[in-house]
Structures are given as C-alpha cells and as structure tokens.
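call fold(seq) -> tokens
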Amino acid sequence: MISFNNSPTLYWAGVFFLFTSTALLTITPSLPDQRFKKNGIIWIALLFQLLLLVYLRLPIIVFNEALNPDENLFIVGAMTLAESPLYWESVDGCTSGPFNFYIVTIFCEVFDQPYDYISARMIGIILLMGSFFFSFLALRTIFNASIALLSLFPAVAFMGLTKHWDFVNFSSEHLPMFLLSIMLYLFVSIYKSKLPINKIQIFVFGLMAGCVIFTKLQAIPIAFCLTLIGYWLIYPKQHNHDLLKNAIILTTGGVLPIVVLVLIGYKYNFLDKIWIFYIENNLAYGKESYGLIHSIYVSLSDPINFFIRATLVLSIILLIYHVLFKRQLMPTMLGSLMALFILSTIVSVYKTGFMFHHYLLFLVFPVVFLFAFLLNDVAEYTKNYIIIGLSILATIYTIAQTSTILFSNYFISSDKPQRPLSVSKTGHQILKYSHPDESLVVWGDAGRLYLETKRTQGVRWSNSHWGMYSDSLQKNFQKEFIMELKEKPFPVFVDAHPTKNTFMTRDKLGYETNKELKEHIDSNYQLIGEFDEQRVFVHKERLIEMNATK
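ret:
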C-alpha cells in the first residue's frame, strides 16, 4: 500500500499539477466562449474536483491510526455488528445513531476490507464526495453549472487541505451530511420542475429525512426544517385532490425508518434502551450551556471556526442586497429554503453548547450555498470574470484557514506497518488468554485493542466515556455496563485508565473507583500485569483451563 513520509516531494508535485488543472477546468465553463459551456467540460471539471479531494486526503486515508476516539467507537461497533447484528442489543453508540455503524459493517463485509482506520476513512471520503456531488446537482438546478463549480471549489480546497483532526477523521457527521445533500437536491428538482410531482422523489425525500434521525439526532433540526418546507412545496404545485396523496407519500417515507426500528426494538425488547441511551443521552447535551446566542458569540473568536463568520457575513450581505436594494420584502421559496437551512444548521451545531469542532462540518454546505447565491447576484450585473475572481479569492482565504505548512506531511505512514495493525504488548496478552471467537471488555478508552486483536466488544460499549460524566445518566450507564459484564465470564478484562497525561486518570476513573465493579473483578479475575499503563485481568476459570492443558 502507498505510504507517505514527512516530506513527500512527488506527492506535492502531483498536488500542484492536479490543483492547477482543476482550477482551470473549474473556471472554464464561466468563460465567454460558448464552446466551454458544453456538458462534457462541466462533468470533467466536477470529476477533477472530486479527484482532487481524494488526492489531497490520501496521506490521511492511509494513516492507519486513530485521529479521534470516535473512530474506534464506530469501527469496533461495526466489527461487532458483523457477528451480532442487532444494534442497541450488542452495540450502543450513545449519541451516535446505528446507521453510522452499519455503513462501516456493510462496506467492510461487501468489499472484504479489514476493520481499521483506513476502511473508515475510505467510507468518510466516499460520503463526502457524494455530498459534493448532490450539492453540485442542486446548485446546478438552482443556478447553472458554472456557478455550482465556482462555489464548490473553495470547499473542495478546504476539505482536502485541512489537517484539523476533527475535520478529517471518520465522524458521525459524514452520513447525515450525505443524506441532507440528497434532500436538498430532491427539493430543488421538484421546485424547478414544470411537470407534476414525481411520487418516487417525494417518497425518497421523506425517507432520507427519516434516516437522518438514526444517523445523528443532532441533525434532526435540519432534516425537520427541510421536510416542513417540503410540505409547503407540495401545496402550490398540486390540485387539491393530489395534495393529500402526495403529503401521505412524503410522510410514509419519513416514518418508515422509525416504524421499522420501533418494531425491531419491540420484537427484541430493547425499546427502552433506544429511549434511555439514544434520546436521553442526546437531550442531556447542552443542558449546562449558556444558550444558543452565547455559544455563537463565544465561537466567533475561535480561530478554527471561520464557518460561522463566513455564514454571518454572507447572510448579512445577501439580506441587505435583497431587502434594501431589490425590495424583495416577501421571501421566495428558495429564499425560505436557504434561510431555514442556515438557521436549522446553526441550531444543530450550537444547541449542545459547541463542544466539538467536528460539528462544524454541518456548516460547510450552507456556506457553499450562500456563496453560490452571492455569485449569482453578482453575475447579474458584471461579467463572469468578477465571479471567477471572487471564487479565487474565496479559495485563497479557505486555504489560509487550513494552516497548512506547504510540502510538509503531518500523517507519516512510511515508518509503521499499515495493514494489519501492529499488536501492542497489551494486545499480545489478550491474544494469549482469549480465543478468536471470544469477546473483550475494556474499562476506559482503548478501542484499538479490539481492532488489533480482532476481538468483538463484550458489552454494548467499547469504551466507558459515558461513565465519566457526572450527570444523571452516569449511574444508569455504569449499572448497565456492570450488569452486562456479569452475564458471562469474559476471558479478558482491561482497565485502560492510565496514571497520567489524560483527564481520565486511574485515580479518578479506574475500575476500583466503582465498588460493585471492583468486587466483581477482584472476585472473578486475576491481574496478569500492567502493559503500557493498561492493566490486564484474566478470568480465573480461563487460567485454570490453561494450566490444566499444560
């Protein structure tokens, strides 16, 4: 497999060539010569943008190490679901929905890929490419292909060049972003079409909204607002006798995923787990924040979050232009869509009190759409060279926000084995005392142990992050964790809490800090040793078995 050192000269030469070629192809459809407006050039330009995105991300994709603890959560959960496919029975992602896990399982099983960070980031980049593709289709339908290409190019440059770990790891934002981009495309397709509403389109529109619920609950405000305006869209395009029929079709698509999940939960008796560990966990986020306005205000000074500053500046410019200069006091359908898209995205990002930067990924495409609206307004009064210039300036600005040191690579993969993952000292102990078809239990955060040993998770959580929060859910989480641990004699238990260099230290969160857990481990397990500050316990029955076979 391809690997990268700290200064991959040939790679950066390729970046320069592909970036320049993509930039030239992107501006070509906006040039006056009509020969450049043919569909062939447009699709080639889009293809180059997507190829540039992938090429820029290559060093990160092949860097087979965790960039965020959430990556371990998704990959380990997906590997477990391949053996025990019922989410909320064998796996629980707490605030993340089941579809983020199943998509990793499906990818790895269908394409026979190992459960590792490379596979997860391949899925992430594919979903990101899909989001750009459907956003292009939506923008081309609203405006034209040249505006669509020019407005997308700065976002492609940023998403390809950024090295911020929260933007480049596989996260729970990738799949909902993809589904929302499909919803936007379907909306504008229905809006612009002069034909009667396509019933398959409105069903899929509703279906995507329903699926968003089970990717990331935080994205519901966006899907909900798009769905509301989708109902509004149906009304003026229909005669009265078709209105109810199409509203039912849209609603059916939306509630179908919910009904299916509820029926499965009822059949396998885990409906209460959905409510407690998915709904309540998400609702608990943001309870201690100072409110939406305060969170936005604080984030304005965050050097990483230029998204909200760009959103506010572009929104103010467009509002002043359309209200004061064009005297458009009544919003258009597309104006309403854009306003709801922006507002609902801001609510989704900041409702929690702005805790993690990867939430900002939701703001990428609202900024792209606002920029496209601006380019379209400017194009009404000037030659296309002006909008080309604006796109170039926006690209330079976004590249500057990546804090990229040219010709330097932060993700060095040439000095370590990529596939399979190397096995740590703790991993060797797990392999020594457990069989391939057995599960592992980790108290703390050491998801890589599951991946390097290929052991599925024994309890629903592959880490105990939720056990460290001092809210009303903590006791319930720990109770469930210990109850599942007691259900069967797992051969190996690992306490991964180190003694220093983290806020999750052993003295605060080690297994001995929970009385019931300590009693169970001390009674049934024996400490084998400590390896890289991870304590390995082996079940006493397993030790007896191994001694008997010697």
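The mean pLDDT is 90.
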